[in-house]
Design brief:
The complex is a heterodimer of chains A (487) and B (495). Chain A has 487 residues and is mainly alpha-helical. Chain A is built from 19 helices and two strands. Chain A has helices at residues 3-23, 28-54, 78-104, 110-129, 133-151, 157-189, 206-219, 231-234, 240-267, 269-275, 279-298, 302-323, 326-357, 368-371, 373-387, 394-408, 411-437, 454-472, 475-482; strands spanning 60-67, 70-75. Chain A has a two-stranded antiparallel ribbon. In chain A, α3 runs antiparallel to α9 (240-267). Chain A is globular, with a radius of gyration of 21 Å. The model of chain A has no long low-confidence stretch (mean pLDDT 86). The model of chain B has no long low-confidence stretch (mean pLDDT 90). The radius of gyration of chain B is 21 Å and the shape is globular. In chain B, α5 (111-130) runs parallel beside α11 (243-269) and α11 packs parallel to α14 (305-326). Chain B is mostly helical and 495 residues long. Chain B has a domain at 281-495. Chain B has a two-stranded antiparallel ribbon. Classes of the chains: A mainly alpha (487), B mainly alpha (495). The A-B interface holds A 64, 66-67, 70, 72, 134, 137-138, 141, 149, 152, 155, 160, 167, 171-172, 175-176, 179-180, 183-184, 186-187 and B 392-394, 399, 402, 405-406, 409-410, 417-418, 421-422, 424-425, 428, 432, 436, 440, 473-476, 480.
């Protein structure tokens, strides 16, 4: 097939799968099969584009021209490729997990759940492959709207409250800041296309560039840069598969992806490096890394702790973009992947614990490792990868980020990164230690295993294995990141 | 062809002649079919006229062959051809929707009167738009106003009477101001033909009389177009009028008044006088912004959704006036294209509410729980219309907002750009309230009524407009292209 159509197909496949999910409402097994088949096809299609992109090809297609210079168009480049790969690949894993979780937890409205999940994946792939800011903005908003029914899945008052915070923050930042920045960019340059080397050079004064960067950074609410981070903990009212894929991977990565993409293809890292206009963002990101880690320490609810950990880890990627050097871009883009594997594992574990033992608070999880050894073992691996210890994937991304920080001469930030890793240890490892080494309080000694259903356990072991494999076999990923922005 | 050369007058005369015939026909289905044929004929004429104007430039038609400036001239250029098209589209689509809703809301013995008044109102609006004569404009203004007072008072709720009365009083004040303005201009120049007025006024522009004329005229028109704070008649009139009437008036009446404002500022008085001597932009800009913010904010707190949409209209009128007040090609294009776009989406939204009122007997938010499941097709239309009102990409609302924000940025008015977007944000809130109740809340326990979807003609009418909000949001050459041409014509930057 012509690669342009393959690009379009990738965006449309999950959308085309969604009607089948609705039609098979009454037959859950076929319905889940529809999700899985769609997921596998999508992943294969995305995968088929990898060699083309590695060869320097940029397959793309223009769908609709709304006004001159303003169109709905797709184009695949390495950064988008990375994002599309993790979103589509982990969707399959999450779907397997969701089958066990949703049934094991006796959730209602499962058809609606799988339907909106598929729509959200369409939006994520649309964000990944968008050829210009307008297309990205459209799919960014579709992603927000399609995940709302997932966040408020339980329909309770608490879920609706969480949903309002979620929608309110994401919509308002994107309309007031992001859209303004986009219109402004168009006014300055007459184009919104993502172009290697950026489009703003020579079109705007330093003051304007600085303001634009502020608008882009905070307008992308999904990147959860403080002080616009509250929506992420609020979104934790969602069922765990949603938190895992969307609020550990797709939605939040769409945010940092946007920032990375704008820095590389709209501003151009040379422009930012020459003018030092992104230094403030380095420090905002560093502050978010540190503060969010500290807040995570105080949370007893496991998912809330993971949410704050995510906020902190997202800022690593923003930091990578703000460094405006190639190490930063490589480290940031790799962190999108390594964090995805680590964090999705942790969320899967949190969900498995909930399904098997109905526990949500960390203080109740003492001794749980004896009942759920596989789950807690995976949790350990995920934690170590997030912390950044070898032989786990997180090592590489942190390594390149530190390199980038050193090259930029931001020694304070290096200290922050080290401190943050220590904080990661402090808020993640005690959970594992308590689970394995502290006996259950005033409970009867546990008898045998009490793990979650198999379709929950296999995915979490799989992603945990991914954390190791990505450490050993990081070559292809590095190759993709090296090609970002034509460097 | 002979008929073709008479198209400009036929645009007005066809519905005018048909109105009294409605009274004679009496039988309600027959009247409806007749009115429907008339309105679609009007639409066909409007399309033909627009095509000819785009092709050949301005059309001038001397009524009774009396040459201008003595006789009455009908003068149609890209600006008013565009508005004629808008008014006749809405007129035709709303009539298609009408029968079931009218049967529900208006006593059976006055159906023929309703259709007669409707066609008269349509005549008035088309006449205002088409004419090139200032006094003739006033006459048509009165035709449309008087018939709309009558139409509003037909509302089922008894408060419709007070609403109509309130509108009558304020509308008459507005019309009188307009007449005083026209009178003063006539006093100074001895002519009523707009093109001639423009020439003659040049030499007497700085006299106190002309300045007073301008003041009276612009305040009068502002009342008719419901510019904040002269919008007080609007919310009640829209909330309590029959659904069909609300949809028709909301989509057309204020738009035509904005056209009158445009025509007099740009063609008759001239931009130098309006914007430099009288500093109209300094008046319009803040009022438009306050209108946007106050209108939207008040809309958030409404329980009656028709009323909510009415306050939203006050805000949307603010956007159009804002576009004019920028006094630039981009701004004016944004304002004019928003005239058209807003008519499509607000018309559709009011039609949806008419259907909701027909099926569940109320347009209060509390009664709409679970409506997304009970009337899925209709509520889907509401969602799309709402998204367009917010200004989501791929809907027409986005095109308007894009141009308005761009115009603000071009002029370096950052706070204004942010305020426009804030307005969108408030729109998110009031639209979302409805969506949340309709889709994410369960039907009230105990309410076990079987709610049917709307009949086919109503669905077709709604989806014609909703389809328009999407199609013209993606393929812009027609709406945006003509709006650009119109704006360029008004600013005199195009041959």
């Amino acid at each position: 097939m012509n690669p342009s159509y393959t690009t379009l197909a990738a965006v449309l496949i999950p959308l085309m799968g969604s009607p089948f999910i609705i039609l098979l409402n009454k037959r859950p097994n076929y319905r889940e099969a529809a999700t899985l088949v769609t997921g596998v096809i999508l992943f294969l299609v995305v995968l088929s584009l990898v060699p083309i992109v590695l060869d320097g090809g940029r397959p793309g297609i223009e769908l609709i021209k709304i006004m001159p210079g303003l169109s709905l168009a797709f184009e695949v480049e390495p950064l988008g490729m990375i994002f599309a790969l993790i979103a589509s690949g982990l969707w399959i894993v999450t779907s397997v997990y969701a089958i066990g979780y949703m049934r094991g937890h006796h959730e209602e409205n499962q058809t609606r759940f799988y339907f909106f999940f598929a729509v959200a994946i369409t939006a994520a792939i649309g964000v990944a492959f968008s050829a210009n800011l307008l297309t990205l903005f459209i799919f960014y908003e579709v992603l927000t709207l399609s995940t709302f029914p997932l966040v408020t899945h339980h329909g309770t008052e608490a879920a609706m409250r969480g949903g309002r915070v979620y929608l309110g923050t994401l919509i308002s930042t994107s309309i007031v800041f992001l859209l303004l920045a986009i219109v402004w960019t168009w006014n300055l340059t007459g184009t919104l296309d993502f172009t290697p080397g950026g489009i703003l050079t020579g079109h705007a004064s330093n003051g304007v560039i600085l303001t634009l960067l502020v608008l882009y950074a905070f307008g992308t609410g999904k990147a959860a840069l403080m002080p616009f981070h509250r929506w992420l903990p609020a979104a934790m009212v969602a069922p765990t598969p949603v938190s895992a894929l969307l609020h550990g991977v797709a939605v939040v990565k769409a945010g940092v992806f946007t920032i990375m993409k704008v820095v590389v293809y709209i501003f151009g890292i040379d422009l930012l490096a020459d003018t030092d206009l992104s230094v403030w963002l380095i420090y905002v990101a560093a502050a978010t890394i540190l503060i969010a880690s500290l807040v995570a320490l105080t949370k007893d609810n496991l998912k809330a702790r993971l949410a704050y950990s995510t906020i902190s880890q997202l800022s690593y990627i923003v930091l990578g973009a703000a460094l405006a050097n190639s190490w930063g871009v490589i480290g940031g883009s790799m962190h999108m992947v390594t964090h995805a594997f680590g964090k999705i594992t942790l969320f899967f574990c949190a969900g498995a614990i909930l399904v098997a033992s109905h526990k949500t608070e960390i203080s109740d999880m003492k001794g749980i490792g004896r009942q759920m050894p596989f789950t807690m073992f995976a949790f350990l691996i995920g934690s170590l990868s997030i912390i950044g210890l070898p032989p786990f994937a997180g090592t590489w991304s942190k390594w390149y980020l530190v390199l980038g920080t050193l090259e930029g001469g931001h020694y304070v930030v290096v200290v922050v990164l080290i401190l943050s890793s220590l904080l990661n240890i402090a808020y993640l490892l005690p959970i594992v230690v308590n689970a394995f080494f502290i006996p259950e309080e005033n409970g009867e000694p546990s008898v045998g295993f009490k793990e979650a259903p198999l379709s929950c356990i296999i995915p979490l072991l799989f992603t945990a294995a991914g954390c190791v494999i990505l450490f050993i076999y990081s070559e292809p990923l590095l190759e993709l990141t090296l090609k970002i922005g034509g460097y | 062809m002979v008929i073709e050369s008479h198209l400009p007058i036929l645009q007005i005369v066809v519905p005018l002649a048909a109105a009294p015939l409605c009274v004679l026909l009496r039988q309600k289905t027959v009247v409806w079919v007749f009115a429907l044929i008339v309105s679609w004929t009007t639409l066909a004429i409007a399309i033909t006229i627009l095509m000819r104007v785009l092709d050949q430039g301005t059309l001038s038609y001397a009524l009774g062959s009396w040459p201008a400036p003595w006789g009455i001239e009908i003068r149609i250029d890209a600006v008013n051809a565009y508005i004629l098209l808008l008014v006749s589209i809405i007129g035709a689509v709303v009539l298609l929707y009408a029968p079931s809703s009218v049967t529900e809301e208006i006593p059976a013995d006055s159906h023929h009167l309703f259709y007669s008044a409707y066609l008269l109102c349509l005549t008035g609006l088309l006449g205002i738009t088409a004419t090139g004569d200032a006094f003739n404009l006033f006459v048509f203004l009165e035709i449309s106003s008087l018939s709309s007072y009558a139409l509003i008072s037909l509302g089922k709720d008894r408060r419709a009477l007070t609403a109509a009365y309130q509108y009558l009083v304020l509308g008459t004040i507005g019309a009188t101001f307009i007449l005083i303005g026209i009178g003063f201009m006539y006093m100074m120049t001895g002519t009523l033909n707009m093109a001639d007025l423009a020439v003659q006024l040049e030499s007497v522009k700085n006299t106190r009389t002309v300045i007073t004329a301008f003041a009276f005229f612009s305040v009068g028109v502002s009342l008719k177009l419901a510019l904040f704070p002269l919008h007080l008649w609007l919310p009640n009139a829209y909330a309590f009028a029959p659904s069909v009437v609300t949809a028709f008036l909301a989509a057309t009446a204020t738009k035509v008044s904005i056209y009158v404002l445009l025509r007099f500022i740009f063609t008759v008085f001239g931009t130098d006088f309006a914007f430099e001597t009288m500093m109209l932009d300094a008046v319009l800009l803040p009022l438009a912004l306050i209108g946007i913010l106050v209108g939207s904010t008040v809309a958030v707190f409404q329980n009656n959704i028709k009323r909510m949409l009415a306050y939203s209209s006050v805000a949307q009128i603010g956007y159009m006036i804002l576009g004019i007040s920028f006094f630039s090609l981009t701004g004016l294009t944004g304002g004019i294209v928003h005239l058209f776009n807003h008519a499509l989406m607000k018309g559709a939204l009011f039609l949806v509410m008419g259907g909701v009122a027909m099926r569940i007997g109320s347009v209060n938010l509390n009664d709409m729980r679970g409506l997304g499941k009970r009337m899925p097709v209709t509520m889907a239309a509401f969602v799309i219309g709402g998204l367009s009102l917010i200004g989501v990409p791929l809907t027409v609302g986005f095109i308007s907002k894009w141009y308005l924000v761009l115009a603000a940025i071009e002029q370096g008015m950052w706070p204004v750009a942010v305020l426009i977007l804030l307005g969108s944000l408030i729109a998110v809130i009031y639209i979302w309230r409805v969506i949340e109740v309709a889709y994410f809340q369960e039907v009230q326990p105990g309410d076990e009524r079987e709610i049917k979807e709307l009949p086919l003609t109503m669905q077709i009418a709604i989806w014609l407009l909703i389809g328009g909000t999407i199609i013209f949001g993606i393929f812009t050459p027609l709406t945006l292209g003509v709006a650009k041409k119109a704006a360029a014509l008004l600013l005199g930057v195009l041959p």
